[in-house]
Amino acid sequence: MLGDCDYCGDPLTNELQSVTCDHCGEGFHVECARDAGEFSVTVESKLLGSDNYRIVCPFCELSWTTSYDPR
């Protein structure tokens, strides 16, 4: 079970783009965090077929890297 979005309270599912912080474990829908103005993602590296993106958690403010585009 993925839990519930900390913004809207709806379940985190694979159908909606959901993110769970690797550090604090809080989960949220990307769209909900973006709508709240609290979603931060930057391109860390652009390599053919292996782009890396850095996400900053809106709850604990720590960041982690992912290989899919969370925007």
UniProtKB/TrEMBL annotation:
Domain RING-type, first and last residues per copy: 5-61
Entries under InterPro entries matching the protein: PKC_DAG/PE, Zinc_finger_PHD-type_CS, Znf_FYVE_PHD, Znf_PHD, Znf_RING, Znf_RING/FYVE/PHD
Highest taxon, organism lineage: Archaea
Keywords of this entry: Metal-binding, Zinc, Zinc-finger
SMART domains to which the protein is assigned, alphabetical: PHD
Tagged with keyword Metal-binding: yes
Annotated protein name in UniProt: RING-type domain-containing protein
